[in-house]
Amino acid sequence: MTELATMDLHPQPQAGEARPWAFPAPGRGTLDNGLTVLRCHRPGQQVVAVEVLLDAPLDAEPAGLDGVATIMARAFSEGTDKHSAEDFAAELERCGATLDAHADHPGVRISLEVPVSRLPKALGLLADALRAPAFADGEVERLVRNRLDEIPHELASPARRAAKELSKELFPADSRMSRPRQGTEETVAAIDSAAVRAFYEKHVRPATATVVVVGDLTDVDLDALLGDTLGAWTGSPAEPRPVPPVTADDTGRVVIVDRPGAVQTQLLIGRVGPDRHDRVWPAQVLGTYCLGGTLTSRLDRVLREEKGYTYGVRAFGQVLRSAPEGTGASLLAISGSVDTPNTGPALADLWTVLRTLAEGGLTDAERDVAVQNLVGVAPLKYETAAAVAGTLADQVEQHLPDDYQATLYRQLAGTGTVEATAAAVNAFPVDRLVTVLVGDAAQIEAPVAALGIGEVTVVRAE
Amino acid sequence: MPMGHTATAEAGSGGLTATEHRLANGLRVVLSEDHLTPVAAVCLWYDVGSRHEVKGRTGLAHLFEHLMFQGSGQVKGNGHFELVQGAGGSLNGTTSFERTNYFETMPAHQLELALWLEADRMGSLLAALDEESMENQRDVVKNERRQRYDNVPYGTAFEKLTALAYPEGHPYHHTPIGSMADLDAATLEDARAFFRTYYAPNNAVLSVVGDIDPEQTLAWIEKYFGSIPGHDGKPEPRDGSLPDVIGEELREVVEEEVPARALMAAYRLPEDGTRACDAADLALTVLGGGESSRLYNRLVRRDRTAVAAGFGLLRLAGAPSLGWLDVKTSGDVEVPVIEAAVDEELARFAEEGPTAEEMERAQAQLEREWLDRLGTVAGRADELCRYAVLFGDPQLALTAVQRVLEVTAEEVQEIAKARLRPDNRAVLVYEPVAAEEDAPQQAAATAEATDENEEPAK
């Protein structure tokens, strides 16, 4: 203890007076072409974030063409009526901009980030891409080949392989959610420029799209700028697409995806639960955080900090798709990797953590710390324009009001320990979890079967 | 006693300023005010990284970093995490070749707590460090190694290329994660000795950035850190300097169960902090940054021989930096086809230099990356520490982007000509083998190669 004596010790300091902060309220409007615009001025944020949402969900993809939404999203940055693919990429990078586009169950999202000084030029390029994409045969063919080349890399990634298997297990075979978001080798190979253009013409138009612009807009005349750029995009009117209901089979069972020789087992344990439209959401967020939100949550306290089985295991809720009428769903899951010899013991401990939670509930102290963290980190989490734009776009995509996030923080603060416990226990019932393990079946099958957490099947490696 | 000077904003600093101070025990302090959001970032860089490790103890700096979160004199168990997160803050630590950093981003009214916590472990870690934490975190770090390197395809490429690019015995020959055998061999006494040697106020820089009152902040820093005794006797790391060029092509072929053939290479480049390093950064950006680069256009768009192709720069101050080439082949394309195209493009670039438009694009890309890094209080705090620790002057962080914009096309061409040559690189070639043929004693697997050189605790 001599080490202690050398410095002056002071008691732990108390917090000062909190300075007010609130999640920003966006301005909302509509351009003449029907495009919905959300804007938010964030002083000091010199890199502006622009998010575009297109009502082109994966369930709109024609049968046998899974992946066409992804190829279309990528093809937006492969040339327009003014620029070849190479020129378009060069012009964007000349702005110091990044442009990412991806397709997911709710629709296609395009994210642009650019220093505010070059926003006009970058918005012009973005508008060209949406208004008059080239979809040249050669470029689409290249994107298709590139996508086919990516698939083996994804299958070789334990985390992505697990995600693919869980989707297949949870959702009925005729549901788009059961199949890979970016398509399979068979479906991607069937995509050509005509298919991409047909998908674009059917589902992409300003009337069902939204753009979110966030950043330091002090010297920006955004109305004029949007009018000159995205305002020139035209399209026929259309009603939003109906959202199909989500069904899932969460009968407790185990699927091992065999990866001979793997030194770790990738875990993905999940089911489907309510989305943000459900009143339970704030309590579910709180309860899930207490279960596995961080290194000091229940799962890591045992699996990492006591046993050393893992670098970290997390529990989370991720919205899959929402509907205005509240029929949407989220994926509730626990994920992480544990070393191969300790796979059985780690799963046994994980189930013990879940059972203990169901039997004894959360403590008030756990609930308090979780609320303080989830609410307290908001100003940090939303420091950048990109973070604010991402959440505003999520709200639109999930049919939530613009003040949803601000309201959520108040609801979290008002959620008690009993509600959080009930939500966590309902989210992760021990007998209604589908467990996917990507690992060495020869070593882990017997110990996992002995746990009694469900029937075990083994999928041999591709 | 603290002594400081107030800086006025320099040209090219985007209006940001920082002041510098030094406590009597040698702790250097950098403060930067920004009242736009009620948050404050605390960042503490210790001038110790994996380059300070000795033979047989690779990975010790990083393992030790984990131990810094296991409690200290007045903080029990996981208290560092619990208290910061309970205050609405976020935190972590990372270890690289050259330094170890610890950081907390806090709601501004909780700043004092973060300072108290950092001071407590700087001054009294050994009061809490025990065998139980050591054994537990050893297992955690070994699982970190498995998860991030051993169990992913191409996961050990960084380690293999680094070992090729820096000769045996060089302080950067091994990476921060260390070897399993050395992680197993580390003892509690090693950890204690490591702390006593390197964790001193006069071997650290503390930066605080955000919605702060500088006078009050400095008073807290004096209160909590001021009585921690400084001490000397830290051994200098082994000399990392090497000749400008390797002088031959070093090469290793890896036969593993990976999804596709790959060509990776590390080129020896100038040290960070030099104008030549900035020029190299621009050259690599023109050649392999983003989707309008020469290599992307050639390999992915035109030849269609690659799934992905790009260059990255690993900036190092105490040894030559590395220019990092990563190409994954498409379909059945063989590596020599890729290699010939890469060499042709590099030779052409050395001959022609960048066009004016390419310079504009590369500078715009690097400028945005800097705006991103300086756009958060945590990013700014980290950069201020970086320039203070590695280059002795935190103010350089605020003008770094300006220096990149001043580099000329001629300088970019010159560095490409001198350094981006086949006789100045280490090459790693991946040839896939089928699972059955591979005796999977230590299974190597999959995915995207990483140029990750930092090991976070969390």
What does this structure look like?
The complex is a heterodimer of chains A (462) and B (458). Chain A has 462 residues and is of the alpha+beta class. Chain A contains 18 helices and 12 strands. Chain A has helices at residues 2-5, 68-75, 85-94, 119-131, 137-156, 158-170, 185-189, 193-203, 222-228, 281-292, 298-303, 343-360, 364-376, 378-381, 385-397, 404-413, 417-427, 441-449, and strands spanning 27-30, 36-41, 47-54, 98-104, 107-115, 210-215, 253-258, 264-273, 310-321, 329-339, 434-439, 455-459. Chain A has a 6-stranded mixed beta sheet with strand order 1-2-6-3-5-4, sandwiched between helices. A 6-stranded mixed beta sheet of chain A has the order 9-10-8-11-7-12, with helices on both faces. In chain A, 55% of the residues are buried. Chain B is α+β, with helices and mostly antiparallel strands and 458 residues long. Helix content of chain B is 40%, strand content 18%. In chain B, the strands form 2 sheets. Chain B has a 7-stranded mixed beta sheet, with helices on both faces. In chain B, strand 4 (90-95) and strand 5 (100-107) form a beta hairpin. In chain B, helix 11 (335-352) crosses helix 16 (409-419). The longest helix of chain B has 20 residues, at 131-150. Chains A and B meet through helix 3, strand 5, helix 5, strand 9 and strand 10 of A and helix 2, strand 5, helix 3, helix 4 and helix 8 of B.
Structure keywords:
heterodimer; A: 462 residues; alpha+beta; 6-stranded mixed β-sheet; 12 strands; globular; B: 458 residues; 5-stranded mixed β-sheet; disordered N terminus
